[in-house]
Specification:
12 helices; 12 strands; 6-stranded parallel beta sheet; alpha/beta; binds nicotinamide-adenine-dinucleotide; 6-stranded mixed beta sheet
Length: 350
């Protein structure tokens, strides 16, 4: 298995393959870049078909965290970890303790947190072996309210560029997913006078939005076909793909979901279609800001100010994308790399 030649390698600082003979733990910890600070990123547990698949996933996700934290102005680098295994069968206290010892062996270069299939309780066990954990029980708590607020502010920045006015009043917003983030986001939009069209597999959440927010409910498939100004993916990844783009009528795509684009090439497709896309890792950064507030001891005011800054960051991305007629995702990546280069130059000079 090639590492340095891997397509997603992108100059990772360190990649650690972890194996514990007693518990059978197999994990990969990827530290992409620590220019801005220690690499913070969750641990994902997944039954990968092969170690190659796990390696590709961890490298891609880890680089994403570097860019996300850099653009959110956080004193954090980017890293991520994957555990190869079945979350229903393979978890045990000894398993997570073994994992915690591997995290600890990196001496704070990598700080871990929850991700897909990893719960707060699992991270609490990891935390018995290492202080390098965030998002544990009783600390910063649920990041979703900050993610929702950042997504709402990011949508306002997009509305300003696409419709000439940051107010959401009168806009038709199609929201996919009314979970922890999606429902709060829907509340912000409704409060400002937007008309909501919503879809979720959870009928209770839909009924609540209809009752409390005067939303119009549609089926989970029909959400792509509705007449709307904004499509807000707040549930699944990869919903922006060749099939859905034939159906989505929105001029703005702005939502909290991770990995919204089916492929990186869809960034350019959206530009060509005249749809303004708020890059997912920029608009949903409220969550990482929240988790960082625990690791970096931010005051409540500082955390709130950083979440509010998502508006300005997206405003800059949209302005530059328009001026240079380039895709917004490409601009976001470039701006993140500029922040890293400036910090590196500062470090080398001083
Ligand atoms: P959640 O699990 O609380 O909510 C997801 C919602 O989507 C649920 O209500 C679920 O029923 C619904 N859903 C599932 N499949 C659906 C489908 N096919 N169509 C419509 N609805 C469907 O998750 P969340 O914490 O609200 O996160 C939402 C998205 O935002 C995820 O992609 C997540 O990765 C991303 N995100 C969340 C945070 C955070 O702070 N929670 C931070 C950054 C990114």
């Amino acid at each position: 298995m090639a590492l340095f030649e891997h397509m997603e390698f992108d100059s990772h600082e360190q990649v650690v393959f972890c194996h514990d003979k007693v518990t059978g733990l197999k994990a990969i910890i990827a530290v992409h870049d620590t220019t801005m600070g220690p690499a913070l990123g969750g641990t994902r547990m997944w039954n990968y078909a092969s170690s190659e698949e796990a390696l590709t996933d961890v490298l891609r996700l880890s680089r994403g965290m570097t860019y996300k934290s850099a653009l959110a102005g956080l004193p954090l680098g980017g890293g991520k970890a994957v555990i190869i295994g079945d979350a229903k069968k393979d978890k045990s206290e000894a398993f997570f303790k073994a994992y915690g010892r591997f995290v600890n062996s990196l001496g704070g270069k990598y700080i871990t947190a929850e991700d897909v299939n990893i719960r707060t309780a699992d991270i609490d066990i990891v935390g018995t072996e290492t202080p390098f954990v965030a998002g544990t029980e009783g600390k910063a708590g649920d990041p979703s309210p900050h993610t929702a607020e950042g997504t709402y502010l990011g949508l306002k920045a997009a509305a300003k560029h696409a419709f000439g006015n940051e107010s959401l009043s009168g806009l038709r917003i199609a929201i996919q997913g009314l979970g922890a983030v999606g429902y709060d986001f829907a509340e912000y939009c409704a409060k400002e006078g937007a008309q909501l069209i919503v879809a979720d597999v959870n009928e209770e959440a839909v009924a609540r939005a209809v009752k409390e927010l005067s939303a119009e409910a549609v089926s989970i498939d029909a959400i792509y076909d509705v007449e709307c100004d904004v499509y807000a993916p707040c549930a699944l990844g990869a919903t922006i793909n060749d099939a859905t783009l034939k159906r989505i009528k929105a001029k703005v795509i702005a939502g909290s979901a991770n990995n919204q684009l089916a492929t990186p090439a869809h960034d350019k497709v959206l530009r060509d279609m005249g749809i303004l896309y708020a890059p997912d890792y920029v608009i949903n950064a409220g969550g990482v800001i929240h988790v960082c507030s625990e690791a970096a001891n931010f005051s409540l005011e500082e955390t709130a100010a950083r979440v509010k800054a998502i508006y300005g960051t997206l405003d800059k991305i949209f302005t530059r994308a328009t001026d240079e007629n380039r895709p917004t995702g490409e601009i976001a990546d470039e701006m993140a790399r500029e922040i890293l280069a400036a910090k590196l130059a500062e470090k080398l000079a001083g």
